[in-house]
Specification:
It is built from 22 helices and no strands. It has three domains: 1-75 and 317-456, no CATH class; 78-186; 229-311, no CATH class. The two termini are 31 Å apart. The protein has helices spanning 3-15, 18-27, 30-43, 51-74, 79-109, 125-144, 150-167, 170-188, 194-217, 229-237, 254-264, 271-276, 279-286, 292-296, 299-311, 320-337, 348-359, 374-382, 384-403, 407-419, 429-443, 445-452.
């Protein structure tokens, strides 16, 4: 828990209105389900052997429970307050995005940018990417309530959209797609030709999706190897201090990086092609980039990497999709051994490592991580009942968002559901705080009244 949250709790204990707090608890009985979810994790310490690891996991998840419990029970939730908070949040996100871009540009100029995750200067690349994408629906909600001009909304959506595309974060792409679809639906649902427009949008999305899938599943022309490795090594030594038969700065085989870079430039794999490389090309290869697209970043760079992973890569190490597949397979193997109660929240790392060894995983020790799927992680830790509670909560509030025409709540639920398939969203303080904070201000009855101006 943060210092500010602890201070808030202490102030409530000393001077809080307990009558209002109890009334709000009674009118938001789903909070007890949230407490039960955290309680199952605490109970699993009884069958965890690593209590230190288990307590750390519980500590991180406290924000997910304490924020809704405290905020729903104490904050007034007036619409003007929410508007002010959202405007401050949007301004903060804009400032951080700008600083991130400037910092990353500086790293590029200094040849220090080795990974797109360096774009996020102040914290988790994935978590911030999701927040940026989700903030689009917050801006739209202000516009809908005539609190933000059309020009400012368009400017903000364009800026966040370009930033998201450049970030190469799949979870952010999913989140942005959800936000754009909900905005499109909300805008056109009251028009005269809603059905025709909706059908056209669906067809367009289908065509674009099919095109992207076709591009990804179509392998690139085979990229071979240098005609003479010895000549290539000699030619490279005249251009670079990094030996060609060693690793690049990303820890990949430098020779293969050079081969892929030359293939992307449609150059022959010869010593002569190495001599023709510009100094910028040499630096790109040293830094582990396999094409000029990958240096520039953006969605095309991500597609190129996916194509390589699916069609050419044999070793999962260093490739995010292939590593995730290994994580999921290993996590599912652990679940099959402990389907009902899980292994205990403290023993997830231990059981995953044991299963990696047992199955002879190709992942190197430094790449052997948790499942990167919150449903699998929860099932491993506390069993099937924990997963069912989590799915019930997301589904229940998603339905509330549809029924009460609350686009922000609906977008939040869909984004949480989708990104939990790709990330251990509640395993970090940033992820648990994101879920806890927006649950607190979106899901309570008083909060929903302030967001939608309806009375419940």
């Amino acid at each position: 828990m943060s210092a500010s949250l602890i201070l808030h709790a202490l102030l409530f204990i000393v001077a809080g209105d307990y009558t209002v707090f109890i009334q709000r608890l009674r009118s938001n009985q789903w909070l007890f389900v949230l407490l039960a979810f955290w309680g199952i994790h605490a109970l699993s310490l009884l069958w965890s052997s690593d209590l230190h690891e288990g307590w750390n996991a519980l500590r991180v998840r406290i924000s997910m429970v304490s924020l809704p419990l405290l905020y729903i029970g104490t904050l007034p939730f007036h619409q003007k307050h929410l508007t002010r908070y959202v405007l401050i949040l949007l301004l903060t996100i804009t400032t951080v995005m700008s600083l991130n871009v400037l910092h990353y540009w500086y790293l590029l100029q200094q040849n220090l940018a080795l990974d797109i995750r360096q774009l996020s200067w102040f914290g988790s690349h994935i978590r911030f990417g999701i927040l940026v994408a989700f903030s689009g629906i917050l801006a739209f909600n202000l516009w809908k309530n005539k609190l933000l001009s059309t020009l400012w909304l368009a400017t903000y959506l364009i800026f966040t959209g370009l930033y998201t595309l450049y970030s190469q974060t799949l979870s952010a792409y999913l989140s942005a797609s959800v936000v754009l679809l909900i905005i499109a639906y909300d805008v056109i649902r009251s028009t005269r030709f809603f059905r025709e427009i909706a059908l056209g949008v669906i067809v367009l999305i289908g065509l674009v999706g099919a095109l992207v899938i076709q591009v990804i599943v179509t392998p690139n022309p085979t990229c071979g190897t240098f005609a003479s490795a010895e000549e290539a090594i000699t030619a490279w030594s005249l251009r670079s201090d990094l030996p060609l038969d060693r690793l690049d700065r990303k820890g990949q085989g430098l020779m293969r990086t050079a081969e892929r870079y030359l293939c992307a430039k449609k150059e022959s794999l010869t010593a002569e092609s190495i001599h023709k490389l510009s100094q910028r090309d040499v630096l790109n290869i040293e830094n582990g980039f396999t094409s000029e697209h990958s240096v520039q970043g953006g969605i095309w760079s991500r597609i190129e990497e996916l194509k390589f992973e699916l069609h050419e890569a044999k070793d999962p190490n260093g490739h995010s999709l292939l590593q995730r597949i290994e994580y999921w397979k290993t996590a599912w193997a652990v679940i099959q051994d402990h389907p009902l109660l899980g292994v205990g929240i403290g023993d997830i790392n231990r059981e995953m490592e044991a299963k990696y060894i047992e199955t002879g995983s190709l992942l190197t020790p430094e790449n052997r991580r948790r499942s990167h799927n919150m449903y699998l992680t929860t099932w491993m830790g506390v069993g099937v009942f924990g997963v069912l509670l989590m799915l019930w909560g997301i589904g229940y509030f998603g339905w509330i968002g549809i029924k009460e025409q609350h686009p922000v709540l609906l977008a939040f639920c869909i984004i949480v559901f989708a990104t939990m398939c790709l990330e251990d969203s509640l395993e970090t303080q940033a992820g648990a705080s994101f879920v806890g904070f927006f649950t607190a201000i979106l899901c309570g009855q008083v909060g929903r009244t302030a967001w939608t101006t309806k009375n419940y």
